[in-house]
């Protein structure tokens, strides 16, 4: 009788429903990867004595053009400085930049030239190329709202934990649409499929080898 009463009272006791999984301690929740529009820019620095693009600068511009063709269909802004010490170089090299973009596949009608005022600090006053595209990204890293030394009782991750890895993962996504939905299936390789079936059945291949499979009783 006493044992049954104790069991009944234990069933009525309040229980702590808090579980570890309910704590907001997941870095993927604090630093989610989102799909949003972002600016992609490239600065091409030029000295006052330059008359044409260097081989290295030309290769970088071609890489920029390839990224643009893969991720955007909008305009490419070419911002040219004015009032800087390299103004003469900019006036001649901007045509080289435009020709390099066009040779890489960027339509000439998509290249829009604008101007900006060069700073008076004597910097290189680069030609800036930019375009907007849908991009996978995270929020800014480096948030430290609490003192780590004074907040160790709960043994939880700190606020900035996982931000860098999430940001690097987002930067590696070539096609942000892959995060939203799967791609369509590619056509089946018929020749490869026939070869795989022939190997499975033990049919001789072109090299004269025979593959057989046995199953145990």
Describe the structure.
- There is one protein chain.
- The chain is an alpha+beta fold and 217 residues long.
- It has a domain at 39-137: 60s Ribosomal Protein L30, Chain: A (2-Layer Sandwich).
- It contains six helices and four strands, in the order ααβαβαββαα.
- The protein has helices spanning 2-12, 27-30, 55-71, 87-103, 163-171, 190-201, and strands at 34-44, 76-82, 111-117, 127-137.
- Strands 1-4-2-3 form a four-stranded mixed sheet.
- α4 (87-103) links the parallel β2 (76-82) and β3 (111-117).
- The longest helix is centred in the N-terminal third of the chain and has 17 residues, at 55-71.
- The protein starts with a helix and ends in a 16-residue tail after the last helix.
- Mean pLDDT is 81; it is low at 5-10 and 16-23.
Sum this structure up briefly.
With about 220 residues, the chain is an alpha+beta fold.
Blueprint of the fold:
Blueprint: H1 2-12, H2 27-30, E1 34-44, H3 55-71, E2 76-82, H4 87-103, E3 111-117, E4 127-137, H5 163-171, H6 190-201
Parallel strand pairs: 2-3
Antiparallel strand pairs: 1-4, 2-4
Helix pairs in contact: 3-4
Protein name: Pilus assembly protein
Pfam family, one: Pilus_CpaD
InterPro entries: Pilus_biogenesis_CpaD-related, Pilus_CpaD
């Amino acid at each position: 009788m006493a044992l049954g009463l104790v069991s009944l009272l234990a069933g009525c006791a309040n229980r702590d429903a808090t579980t570890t999984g309910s704590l907001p301690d997941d870095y993927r929740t604090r630093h989610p990867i989102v799909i949003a529009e972002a600016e992609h820019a490239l600065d091409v620095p030029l000295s006052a004595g330059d008359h044409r693009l260097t081989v290295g600068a030309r290769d970088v511009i071609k890489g920029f053009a390839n990224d643009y063709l893969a991720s955007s269909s909008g305009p490419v802004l070419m911002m040219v400085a004015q009032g800087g010490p390299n103004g003469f170089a900019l006036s001649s090299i901007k045509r080289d930049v435009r020709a390099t973009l066009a040779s890489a596949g960027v339509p000439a009608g998509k290249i829009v030239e604008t101007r900006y005022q060069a700073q008076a600090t004597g910097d290189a006053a680069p030609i800036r190329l930019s375009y907007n595209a849908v991009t996978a990204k995270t929020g800014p890293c480096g948030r430290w709202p609490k003192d780590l030394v004074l907040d160790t009782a709960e043994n939880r991750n700190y606020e900035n934990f996982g931000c860098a890895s999430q940001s690097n993962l987002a930067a590696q996504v070539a096609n942000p649409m892959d995060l939203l939905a799967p791609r369509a299936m590619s056509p089946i390789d018929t020749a490869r499929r026939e070869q795989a079936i022939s190997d499975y059945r033990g049919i001789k291949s072109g090299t004269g080898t025979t593959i057989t499979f046995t199953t145990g009783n």
